[in-house]
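Morning!

This is the sequence you dropped in the shared folder:
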Amino acid sequence: MQKALNIQFFSMPGELSDIILNWVNEFSLKMVVISKYDEKFVITKNDELADESINNCTVALSLGAIDTSATNYNVFRERNPNCLYMDIGFYNSNELHESWLHSLKILNDQSSYSLWLKLSNRLRKNLTSGGYAILLSTNEKKFSKNIKYSTSVENMVSSGLKLFHNKIKTIEYVIS
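The structure's back. Tokens below.
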């Protein structure tokens, strides 16, 4: 069993669409896009990705076939332990939520793990690190080298875009 991969970062949805589609084409990966609305679970696309569909969703990538028969997200993940998952953060013109590239601890295919490690390292090399996390309930501010973001996010932040950990908005990130 390999170690699970885990990168949390900020990137614009269009950038992530390009990255994912490049990976799919370069490595002949299978892909599904999963939307989760409250408790609902919907596989919205198979093997295609459009900028408008990539906001606040999960993209599952696999070297082999993906089992899409699950009726909820947890069962989907159990049936697809060797996928690489990209949770894409919510975005609108005012705010961007964190995205997350990860694999599961139950991943058991060495070929998949090797490729996922390669892709996560490739992504990591294109991100800048460092910024402040602000706990909004207390305004406590702490520097963290683990805040990762793309150049385009850095440019958008200078134009007023706010970065949040998730939709609850308990933590805001400040980069500069």
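Headline: The CA atoms of residues 31 and 48 lie 8 Å apart.

More detail when I'm at my desk.
O.
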